[in-house]
Amino acid sequence: MSVRIRQLATTSPDFETEFQRVLHWTAQADPAIEARVTEILADVRARGDAAVLDHTARLDGLQAASVAELALSPAQLQAAFEAIPATQREALQAAAKRVRTYHERQLEACGRSWSYRDEDGTLLGQKVTPLDRVGIYVPGGKAAYPSSVLMNAIPAQVAGVGEIIMVVPTPRGEKNPLVLAAAHVAGVSRAFTIGGAQAVAALAYGTATIPKVDKITGPGNAYVASAKKHVFGTVGIDMIAGPSEILVLADGSTPADWVAMDLFSQAEHDELAQSILLCPDAHYIAEVRAAIDRLLPGMPRRDIIRASLEGRGALILTRSMEEACEISNRIAPEHLEVSSREPGRWEPLLRHAGAIFLGAYTSESLGDYCAGPNHVLPTSGTARFSSPLGVYDFQKRSSLIEVSESGARVLGAIAAELAYGEGLQAHAQAAEFRLKGQVR
């Protein structure tokens, strides 16, 4: 049975209508989820550890007499690391090294304090300081994600965050050793086996056992996303992530099987994930479609892939690669593969994407695990104004201003004039006082 994936052409009179149907996805939360999340947050805020234990027992089937029993010690994380196969240890360490190296470059480029003095001796600058404590949420329901541990914890550590608190659900007490090993490799300070809205609430408000954090990062299900949205303002958050996305911009030179599998790589995440191919070669699109039908039966998650491709996927025939780039910019995908003989030719035309993967050998999956750049990326078109998770998300910036006596005379006159124009007399006089007197 063939996959009923949409096939569109930009030359079709109804292309725009069909294209908008492909893009449509509502992030509106289920009212029942919103109501339940609100109840859980309020309960944890009011009862702290007791509420966390009750919700963890009810939702995860994990019974504990105290939240301290749900904590994972550094020794346990190290033991998990030492217990996994050597091949997994080596893969974790290699991936962590590449992720760390990339984020250290970010620190060099944008994460340092700076200042300068102008001609009258006034000092102006910016002081960059790390957050004191952050919480990272690692999904643990349908699947385990050690890569998410690395991608959230390592840039926080590179930024200089003092304490990294990890929460990860362990339904029925089933702990994934690779996730725990990744926490050891990534330098997680403390870890708790809790998840869902109650974990977000505990991190945001603090309990007797779980410390309050300054920011929460990491993906989760609809309850986690809703909880992060509700606690924003009390703490910072990275983003509200939607379903996974991949867009492949192809010129027909890459083996069709490779591209089909790249489309599968996001479709297998979730029935709501989106996989799109843009290509100006109709014959090649037919080859990819045939590869999809041929390869799908061998995929363990074929039912999820099929639902994703048929629900939100598309194969789009464009007039040219230039037009494909224009459409890609309209979509602003989370992951963008430029599967072309000349990826460098098209990259300058691409303005909006979470991550851009250049060339046939650069599969999106390498970025998910070990290339180095962060895999926490903006979704649902938010790449138009948002960026990947990075060192800068774990730092804050304070402006530095030190005005000299001569500078105060120049700037005071300007400030007073504008303040009087705004009707703010005290502002104006505070500046004018510096014009008339001297410090004792």
Structural features, described:
The chain is an alpha/beta fold and 440 residues long. It has 3 domains: 6-18 and 242-364, Nitrogenase molybdenum iron protein domain (Rossmann fold); 31-237, Rossmann fold, CATH 3.40.50; 403-436, no CATH class. 47% of the residues lie in helices and 16% in strands. The chain contains 17 helices and 15 strands. The protein has helices at 15-23, 31-47, 49-60, 74-83, 86-110, 146-159, 177-186, 196-205, 222-231, 256-267, 282-295, 302-312, 321-331, 343-346, 364-369, 405-422, 425-436; strands spanning 6-9, 71-72, 114-117, 123-130, 133-137, 163-167, 190-192, 215-217, 236-237, 245-250, 274-279, 314-317, 335-339, 355-358, 395-402. The strands form 3 sheets. It has a 6-stranded parallel beta sheet with strand order 1-12-11-10-13-14, with helices on both faces. A 6-stranded mixed beta sheet has the order 2-7-6-5-8-9, sandwiched between helices. A 3-stranded antiparallel beta sheet has the order 3-4-15, with no helix packed on it. Strand 6 (163-167), helix 7 and strand 7 (190-192) form a beta-alpha-beta unit. The longest helix has 25 residues, at 86-110. It is globular and about 85 Å long. The termini are far apart. 42% of the residues are buried. The mean pLDDT is 94.
Can you give me a brief rundown of this structure?
The chain is built from 17 helices and 15 strands. The protein has 440 residues and is an alpha/beta fold.
